[in-house]
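User: Okay, second chain of the day. Same drill as before: sequence in, structure tokens out.
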Amino acid sequence: MSSEVVISGIGSAFSGSGNVQDFGRDLLNNKHLVQRTKRWREDLFTPVSGTVPSEHFDGQFFGINSKLANSTDPTSILCYMRSYEAVLDAGLHPSTLRGSNTGVFACSGINEYEQKIMHSDAIEQHEGYIIMGLSRTMLPNRLSYYFNWNGKRSQERCKILI
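Assistant: Same drill. Structure tokens below.
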């Protein structure tokens, strides 16, 4: 049994650049895309940080109610938005893939937002939605549900090898 994998579109966000075209232009123009920060101690890390341009997230567009959208990890929000962008970049309308055998495979790790929320009083303000909003295992399932894709779904934990 043979399987075919096709990756035909890209959705992306880079430090200081809203998409892959902006990123390419910024690199060619030698634009410096990271900034010095006081976020980390200089004796531990090089104190630079990159930030992705902020965008409005329309949770209702993705079938996510406002309380859950406000409790969702920003990394997951970027993934939802960039997944839609990748489908469009492939030259497809999302409705043409509904019901298809399209799979979703995601990889993510622990991030600062999760740590910040879990160790603060803010957890009570989210009325239980924070568990679903921070659950990385839900990411490929939410995308599959939104797009009505019937292929395999998998969430893997990213490992950094040095």
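The helical segments are 20-28, 66-71, 74-89, 112-118, 122-125, 129-134, 138-147.

User: Thanks, on to the next one.
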